[in-house]
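Write out the 3D structure for:
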Amino acid sequence: MDTQMLIGAKLVSGTETEENILNPRTGEIITTLPEASLTQVEEAVSAAEKAFERWSRTTPADRSAYLLKIADRIEAEADTLAGLESLNCGKPGPLALGDELPAIVDCFRFFAGAVRCMTGPVAGEYLEGHTSMIRRDPIGIVASIAPWNYPLMMMAWKIAPAIGAGNTVVFKPSEQTPLTALAMAKIFADVLPEGVVNIILGRGETVGSALINHPKVAMISLTGDIATGRKILEAANKTIKRTHLELGGKAPVIVFNDADLEATVEGLRAFSFYNAGQDCTAACRVYVQGEIYDKFVADLTATVSDIPYGQ
């Protein structure tokens, strides 16, 4: 099991407070990982800054080739990555391997293609002898913070487009579910030039805070809760950082008297408990019209009672 962070070209361990990494299915401790020091956060940002000078000037074809290599490595190591994701998140292993890993591989391959199709449209001839146009340039260092429920998939969504566009990344996984990110650290170290992707561990109030408040970070990408989103907007305001905030959701289901109850119950069985119920779009609030309430509750209770545990 890989347990080291990636800073520049080096795989290193954190030096600060240790975090117990749990198997949520059993409550047992899988391993214990120390978080990064503030010095290590600084080193990661510096490595990303240095790498940006060269990486931002690579051609789309070059960056596309790197993304395809990453996709190939993920595909080759899919069994191992799915096993870690299942172990650390408590999600069903077959779903991690059959649903998530193919989508993650496809994400890197999609952006490998998309990066070669970015357009710079001509805007018009507003002054004689001059042509206005749109030029797309990399932003700089992107600080990415991922959640605990889809660690590897969120990592792919955040890193693939960012580096594909010529940016460099300092990535912090959730301190609760970092195992697949650490496995990816080895892949990134093998495939990418030094410093293009850096992976550091730690809690939000320490490592995350240092990262989002760093003056050299040009953009912050978060998938998390609203309170964290507010902190990021406050931090971004100081140096006018760009932000990408996905702040979760609470998916309501409204059931009226004329609904197809059997189909609705079956739908809720699937969409309320997919990914062990650890989904920001999980159907977790159900409002049922009074006349059918008792029957609906009884039918839903009976339907979800046979969901198997531990598979």
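The two ends are 22 Å apart (CA to CA).
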